[in-house]
UniProtKB/TrEMBL annotation:
Domain AMP-dependent synthetase/ligase: 455-794
InterPro entries attached to this UniProt entry: AA_adenyl_dom, ACP-like_sf, AMP-bd_C, AMP-bd_C_sf, AMP-binding_CS, AMP-dep_synth/lig_dom, ANL_N_sf, CAT-like_dom_sf
NCBIfam families, alphabetized: AA-adenyl-dom
A single cellular component GO annotation: cytoplasm
Residue ranges occupied by any AMP-binding enzyme C-terminal domain in the UniProt entry: 852-929
Protein name: Non-ribosomal peptide synthetase
Coiled coil segments of this chain: none
Alphabetical list of PANTHER family matching this protein: FATTY ACID SYNTHASE (PTHR45527:SF1), NONRIBOSOMAL PEPTIDE SYNTHETASE (PTHR45527)
Organism: Micromonospora inaquosa
Length: 1183
């Protein structure tokens, strides 16, 4: 591309370009302009003010420029014919005028069509006038807007008096806008990345992070005069300003709200230009890392000391600073929180000779995600929260105002208290928490599973109880089988609560086995026959099983390898019945379920009969399960929810329908089971429901469904709500006896996070911070569960039990289970889950401890270190990636396959990593631990989908072109979001080649080439253009590169070939932009590389020779051939005419000329060479 720029054009500064491109993404819409306003006591003559505006524009070129796309490059173009946008409003009240002016000031600037300045004049009742001047940040910052407004006030009286106008010696407004910000990856002058390095705040987003960071909502709060006086007195005692106390309190509040100790606060530098008070473009970044154990006084004094040494950012907009320092993030600001404090009234000013005062417009945008503005007056403190739309709502900001006021009270009253112990919960919010977290009575009383099922055995002995395929067992048959099993187990003489393993395939007798174990006073240890023998052996040994019930589902050698007595199910069912013994006590052990363990080994959770019975009865009450209804059970018995699936119907007088393991895993077969048995209720994990939908299941308007075991996406929840009778969202870890929280979801198209509702009877919740203190409503903390469902603990693991099962400070003798789940109370009193606070993850419904996987991988003899990370952004596509460091660098032959086989032998299928990567050295942190953040940045091995997607393949090649070879084909074009300049070039390339107009935010939002390809398909379809077809050859002509001179150094040849694939396209772009290559394909052959592309070859031959010499120091001889009428050979460097027909023998006639030629550019008729391989071979033979 030519470097020539006309006199009416100029290249924007780096910051202007960044601001313009950011505006084009629509991501910062409304937040990249600056306005200043004055309210003057008098009328303003519109014609005179318009003349003053025009003169202002004539004086400053920056006010006459707009952007224009010139050959794919955005340039600033001067347009003298376009006047300042002038808005004249109608007379109205001050409040109404402020609202209208704020809307006008927030309007998007069309930088492609008009200069970036507008002036508004709004008459106000009482003979006053509101004057507002707005500029885009690409013109200048807040100080520039203030200076322009001040000068406009000086020039208005001159315009009123009429020409000629005297000269003005006022310093010129900056012409280039804020010039200190450079590209998205360059170093910023005066900015220390080390100082700015911090972990961004994670807000408790309730509605999903939306586009348009600049848009915000505002709420107000206040502090009465009496407490303001106490604050002043406290500040005087400590020796700091009231502003320092307020800022320190804000930092403490944010720490208590988010858990982040190190938070950057942005604060403006107040100054004055002429008579106009402004907040200068420089922002102070105030940083102070908090210690929760430090006293209030020490914290406030440290805040004061820190404020004397702020980090300044000259002329840096926060939005641009964010993209410069974190180009890989498409959202999130570097300085997320702003603080502004006014401590006194501004003196009166004049504007245009009239008495005036500064006005802050209530604009609906902010440079921060959260901004706190405080005005301290004699009658109290008035505060304003401004929160980004999508991150905050009015209820959250109102609650934060209450918490801030509460904190300020505690700050003054308890100056010696550690800041981590200060109360931040307002009495209003504490009352709400007390209601939501109040303990409740259990639903099952003293009943156990034995009594609950026995009641229906006595009432309805002949009613069907269990159904599997064509086999039906009545309640009396269930009773008979359970009685025989209990009697036979009694002969083992095992102590009460002894664990007994259950290792059987899914069969109709399964409920009878579990019921018989309970009647015998033993504790069931359900196991999955599909799990590896190593895991089964560990469970049997760790739980202390007195025996294992088996039915032949496993080979006998695997069963005997478990090392405990084997009890045959057939023998149990054939045993003589015996009178029933005493039913188990509610607090006795019901079952032991093994989950993934953080120590690298599975851990057994000991659940009592009281917890099991309470969950069954409470769920029956919530679902209103009737004796005439049935439930389809699909979950393996080694998953705790199988206990509810098996017995919910049986404790309600209904029917349990058992699906086989094969049916539960196959969507089509599961559909057939649903169609055949028409159950009334079905519980399943999100993945099972997705499998059903993927196989075409339309739903069932008569089916009640519940879903838990993993995070339920809003999309899945909406789908289940819309196609079933009822959808119940459930939550509960094994340690809380299955369900702990449950709710029927209504249809809510606005859901971004699906709530899990309220606790079951007998269950209560606590949400606590890291110090164990309650958090206010809406604030994320760790979820603790209390009540009758809390398990005893972990079998044989007292240290782990003590860590996770802690005393309940509100209940004498009570305990709470620390779930490790993050949660918050919504404003309506419903629970909302927000992820995990440890490394435990859930994948496709299975709870997984990566440490257990790493322990198995590290156990391989050839592995020194192993680490795992979870890859995939979509919850349903998450998978485990394993990183391996071999013990010996040379011993990598088939290592991955051997380690994978080892993992499959020791781990269940859902815990086996989906991909592996070998590392020469495992990245470590400064403390010697594995650096998992570094591992997460390593791209896991993946299949290249580009080859099978024509649009994605085209996009991949186009990205290589616009990035001039700095990107590889395996990289994702979505990474262009980090460099908007490249994204702009890609957009221009797509428009020129494919005739479709991508938006920059399409590219910003894309993560992969496939994402962009999908968007291109949508645009082409909307325009009626057929999809791309990849034929493996060019549409018009071909470039054939012949390596003909063996004297070239090998490295020079390689460099040339890499350069050729990109730079020749650049040359073609200069000559004929309309023929820019749409695709570039390569076919390798001995001695030759065939490149398929489009371009004008003859006119670029000389340029190629010259450029190659400059790039690699070798001057090749170039021979160009253009398809036209046949003629004889021409000397090298000239432009012979030739038509290459299907007779490839004609190519051989060039052999003599080629012997003296380093590079042959051959324009081939695309209809002639139907086989690129043949052509490559022929050309290779020429050498």
């Amino acid at each position: 591309m030519s470097n020539d720029v006309s006199s009416s054009e100029r290249r924007p500064t780096a910051s202007q370009l960044a601001l313009y491109l950011a505006e084009q993404t629509a991501f910062w819409a409304g937040g990249l302009q600056h306005c200043r306003a004055v309210l003057v006591a008098g009328d303003v003559v519109l014609a005179a003010l318009a003349a003053a505006c025009a003169d202002l524009q004539r004086r400053y070129a920056a006010l006459r420029r707009h952007f224009r796309d010139v050959d794919g490059e955005p340039l600033l173009v001067s347009s003298d014919g376009w006047p300042v946008e002038f808005i004249a409003g109608a007379p109205r009240s001050l409040g109404a005028a402020l609202k209208v002016a704020a809307v006008d000031a927030s309007r998007h600037f069309d930088l492609d069509d008009r200069p970036a300045i507008r002036v508004g004049v709004y008459p106000v009742e009482g003979g006053r006038t509101l004057v507002v001047l707005t500029i885009h940040a690409a013109v200048g910052g807040r100080s520039v807007a203030a200076r322009l407004l001040d000068e406009l006030g000086q020039r208005y009286p001159l315009a009123l008096a009429g020409p000629p106008w005297p000269s003005n010696d006022m310093p010129a407004v900056e012409q280039g806008g804020p010039g200190r910000v450079v590209g998205s990856v360059a170093t910023l002058d005066g900015v220390s990345r080390a100082v700015l390095a911090h972990r961004p705040i994670t807000w408790p987003v309730s509605r999903g992070r939306g586009r348009g960071h600049g848009r915000s909502i505002t709420t107000a709060w206040w502090l009465e005069e009496s407490h303001t006086a106490l604050l002043r007195a406290f500040a005087d005692r400590v020796g700091v300003s009231v502003a320092t106390v307020l800022r320190s309190a804000l930092r403490i509040l944010l720490f208590r709200e988010t858990g982040e100790r190190d938070i950057l606060l942005g604060s403006p530098k107040p100054t004055r230009i002429g008579d106009v008070a402004v907040a200068a473009d420089d922002i102070q970044i105030l940083r102070h890392a908090l210690d929760p154990h430090t006293s209030v006084v020490d914290t406030v004094q440290a805040e004061h000391t820190m404020a004397t040494q702020p980090v300044d950012h000259p002329d840096v907009l926060n939005a641009v600073l964010s993209r410069a320092l974190r180009p890989e993030q498409s959202d999130g600001l570097e300085v997320q929180v702003g603080f502004r404090c006014d401590t006194g009234a501004e003196p009166p000013i004049t504007w245009a000779g009239m008495v005036a005062r500064d006005i802050d417009l209530p604009v609906a945008h902010s440079p921060y995600e959260l901004e706190c503005a405080v005005t301290v007056g004699d009658d109290g403190i008035v505060g304003e929260w401004r929160g980004a739309v999508g991150l905050f709502d009015e209820q959250t900001l109102d609650r934060m105002g209450r918490s801030y006021s509460t904190l300020l009270h505690g700050l003054v009253q308890c100056p010696a208290r550690p800041i981590g112990e200060l109360d931040v919960i307002h009495p209003t919010d504490r009352t709400r928490l007390a209601k939501w977290e109040a303990p409740t009575s259990g639903a099952s009383g003293e009943d156990t599973l034995v009594e609950l099922v026995g009641r229906w055995i006595r009432r309805t002995p002949d009613r069907p109880a269990v159904v599997m395929a064509d086999v039906v067992h009545t309640y009396s048959e269930l009773d008979a089988a359970a009685t025989r099993i209990a009697a036979a187990l009694g002969t083992l003489r095992l102590p009460p609560e002894s664990p007994i393993g259950i290792l059987v395939a899914r069969r109709v007798e399964l409920p009878a086995i579990l019921l018989g174990v309970a009647r015998a006073g033993l504790a069931a240890v359900p196991m999955d026959p599909d799990h590896p023998t190593e895991r089964l052996s560990y469970i049997v040994g760790d739980s202390g099983c007195g025996g294992v019930i088996t039915d032949g589902a496993l080979p006998i050698e695997r069963v005997t390898a478990l090392g405990v007595p084997v009890v045959s199910l057939s023998d149990l069912l054939a045993a003589d019945p015996a009178p029933p013994g005493r039913p188990p006590h509610p607090d006795s052990l019901a079952y032991v379920l093994y989950t993934s363990g953080s120590t690298g080994r599975p851990k057994g959770v000991a659940v009592t009969h009281r917890g099991l019975a309470n969950c069954l009865v409470a769920t029956r009450q919530l679902l209103d399960f009737q004796p005439t209804q049935s439930l389809l059970a699909v979950t393996t018995i080694s998953f705790d929810i199988a206990m509810l699936e098996t017995f919910l119907a049986l404790t309600s007088g209904g029917r349990t329908i058992l699906a086989t393991s094969a049916q539960a895993r196959n969507g089509a077969e599961l559909q057939a089971v649903l169609a055949r048995h028409r159950p009334d209720v079905m519980q399943a994990t999100p993945m099972t429901w997705r499998i059903l939908f993927a196989t075409g299941w339309p739903g069932d308007p008569e089916l009640i469904v519940s879903c838990g075991g993993d995070v339920v996406s809003p999309e899945l929840a909406s789908r289940l709500v819309s196609c079933t009778k009822e959808f119940w969202h459930t939550y509960g870890p094994t340690e809380a006896s299955m369900y702990a929280v449950c709710e029927r979801l209504p249809r809510d198209p606005q859901m971004s996070i699906v709530p899990v509702g309220r606790p079951l009877p007998g269950v209560w919740l606590r949400i606590l911070d890291a110090a164990g203190s309650p958090v206010p409503p809406g604030v994320v903390g760790e979820l603790y569960l209390g009540g009758v469902g809390v398990a005893r603990g972990y079998i044989g693991a007292p240290a782990q039990t003590a860590e996770r099962f802690v005393p309940d400070p509100t209940s004498e003798g009570g305990r709470l289970y620390r779930t490790g789940d993050l949660a918050r109370w919504r404003a309506d009193g419903r629970l909302e889950l927000r992820g995990r606070n440890d490394r435990q993850v859930k994948i496709r419904g299975h709870r997984i401890e990566p440490d257990e996987i790493e322990s198995v991988l590290s156990g391989h003899l050839d592995i020194a270190f192993a680490a795992t990370v979870v890859a995939g952004h979509d919850r349903d596509s998450r998978n485990i990636v394993a990183f391996l460091q071999p013990r010996q660098s040379g011993a990598v032959q088939d290592l991955v396959s051997r380690v994978a086989a080892h993992a499959r032998q020791a781990l269940p299928a859902y815990m086996v990593p989906s991909s592996y990567a070998l590392l020469s050295t495992m990245p470590l942190t400064a403390t010697g631990k594995i650096d998992r953040a570094a591992l997460a940045r390593i791209k896991p091995p993946r299949r290249n989908v580009v080859e099978s997607d024509p649009e994605a393949r085209w996009m991949s090649e186009a990205w290589q072109y616009v990035s001039r070879g700095s990107a590889s084909r395996d990289d994702d074009p979505g990474q262009l979001a980090g460099d908007l300049r490249l994204a702009w070039k890609l957009r221009a390339h797509v428009r020129r080649e494919l005739g479709v107009q991508l938006r920059l935010d399409d590219i910003v939002a894309a993560a992969t080439a496939a994402d962009l390809a999908q968007r291109i398909r949508q645009l082409r379809l909307a325009a009626g253009v057929p999809p791309l077809r990849w034929s493996g050859r060019a549409d018009r002509s071909a470039l054939v590169l012949l390596q003909g001179d063996e004297a070239w150094p090998a490295q020079a040849v390689a460099d040339f070939e890499r350069w050729f694939k990109v730079s020749i396209l650049d040359i073609a772009d200069r000559r004929r932009p309309q023929d820019l290559p749409a695709r570039l394909a390569t076919v390798d052959a001995p001695g030759a590389t065939v490149l398929a592309a489009r371009g004008d070859l003859v006119t670029v031959a000389a340029d190629i020779a010259h450029t190659v010499r400059e790039r690699i120091g070798v001057g090749p001889k170039v021979l160009a051939v253009e398809p036209s009428a046949p003629s004889g050979p021409h000397p090298p460097g000239h432009a012979p005419q030739w038509v290459v027909s299907r007779d490839h023998a004609l190519l051989r006639s060039w052999r003599a000329a080629a012997e003296d030629t380093d590079l042959v550019l051959l324009a081939v008729d695309p209809d002639a060479p139907t086989d690129w391989t043949i052509l490559a071979s022929v050309v290779a033979g020429m050498g």
